[in-house]
Amino acid sequence: MTNEQIEQLLMQQLNANEIHIQGQDAHYTAIIVSNELAKLTRIKQQQAVYAPLMDKFSDGSIHALSIRVFSAEKWQRERALNGF
């Protein structure tokens, strides 16, 4: 599974401004910029992100996914401070 394929699956299902996927060998990190998701608890964020990918976890295409969710405002600060 490519980073771009995961981005596409998530963009189709989530109301996100931006999605960035990094990783390989079934271990990925997702950075999701969404004011809507940022308002949810971490557990609800994970459930929302995992839901469109469940079949990929089941077939082993994705083994691990680390999720970071930012509001648009916090993402701008994060990018400025950490050079994303």
Q: How is this structure best described in words?
A:
This protein is an alpha+beta fold and 84 residues long. 48% of the residues lie in helices and 25% in strands. It has helices at residues 3-13, 35-38, 42-50, 54-58, 72-82, and strands spanning 18-24, 27-33, 64-70. The chain has a 3-stranded mixed β-sheet. The longest helix is centred in the N-terminal third of the chain and has 11 residues, at 3-13. It is globular and about 35 Å long.
List the helices and strands and how they pair.
Blueprint (H helix, E strand, L loop, with lengths): L2 H11 L4 E7 L2 E7 L1 H4 L3 H9 L3 H5 L5 E7 L1 H11 L2
Parallel strand pairs: 2-3
Antiparallel strand pairs: 1-2
The residue ranges in which pLDDT falls below 50 over 5 or more consecutive positions are none
Number of helices: 5
Largest sheet: 3 strands, mixed
- Adjacency order of strands in the biggest sheet: 1-2-3
The number of distinct β-strands equals: 3
The CA-CA distance between the termini, in Å, is 23 Å
Q: Look at the helices and sheets and give the structural class.
A: alpha+beta
Helix percentage range: 40-55%
Give the key terms.
single chain, 84 residues, alpha+beta, 5 helices
Q: What is the gist of this entry?
A:
With 84 residues, the chain is α+β, with helices and mostly antiparallel strands. It has five helices and three strands.
